[in-house]
Specification:
With 197 residues, the protein is mainly beta. It has two domains: 67 residues, no CATH class; 76 residues, Carboxypeptidase-like, regulatory domain (Immunoglobulin-like, Sandwich), CATH 2.60.40. It is built from no helices and 14 strands. The strands form five sheets. It has a four-stranded antiparallel β-sheet with strand order 10-9-12-13, with no helix packed on it. A hairpin with a 5-residue loop joins strand 9 and strand 10.
């Protein structure tokens, strides 16, 4: 039994239980409740009022929930069980700001290309070109050319959609020379744009 104080820190979202099993009855009694602002939130926790009969303790008492508002200041010392030598004593505070890991820099570049009709070699204008897994999107001009800025370096997939054409896909290793996307005509001859996504 550890009778000392431990200092533990967790990153949790509102409504998420604190991932710990160090409490009495091996259940995590703490959960972060509704955030009240950038520097305060509710903390809920289980408490038990155990009845002592001689030397025996009634472990059947049902847990009840209690709560308090936590801020960046330490709370008073509280307990989870109403028996001095069986409960867990704790103090809690919000850590603000949380030391978030530094984002990894992403190298990007510009990707240029052209969309053409696979059977005639003619330019396909106003074709939507999308980089898979991103929000990067552009349209080809009247000569079929397109430019995509801030494309991540590495392997990317390009999707292309235009009226009266089947959707096309091309895997590209960026940076790259200008790419050529070849689209096949839709056999049904539809004059509507089929969305890439």
């Amino acid at each position: 039994m550890n009778w000392g104080w431990d200092s533990l820190t967790w990153r949790v979202r509102a409504g998420q239980p604190v991932p710990a099993t160090f409490s009495f009855f091996d259940r995590p009694p703490f959960a972060v409740g509704r955030a009240l602002g950038p520097d305060s939130a509710w903390l809920t926790y289980e408490v038990r009022d155990l009845a002592l009969e001689g030397h025996a303790t009634d472990l059947r008492s049902a847990p009840e929930m209690d709560s308090l508002v936590i801020t960046s200041r330490w709370t008073p010392t509280l307990t989870t069980i109403g028996v001095s030598d069986a409960g867990m004593w704790f103090r809690v505070r919000l850590v603000t700001p949380w030391p978030a890991p530094a984002p990894r820099p992403t190298r990007t570049t510009t990707l240029r290309g052209k969309v053409i009709d696979d059977s005639t070699g003619c330019a396909v204008f106003f074709c939507q070109v999308i980089v898979d897994g991103t929000k990067l999107v552009t349209h080809s001009d009247t000569l079929g050319y397109f430019v995509l800025n801030d494309v991540p370096v590495g392997s990317v997939g390009l999707d292309a959609c235009a009226a009266a054409y089947l959707a096309g896909h091309l895997d590209v290793e960026v940076p790259s020379e200008p790419v050529v996307l070849r689209l096949r005509r839709d056999p049904a001859g539809l004059k509507v744009v089929r969305p890439c996504r």
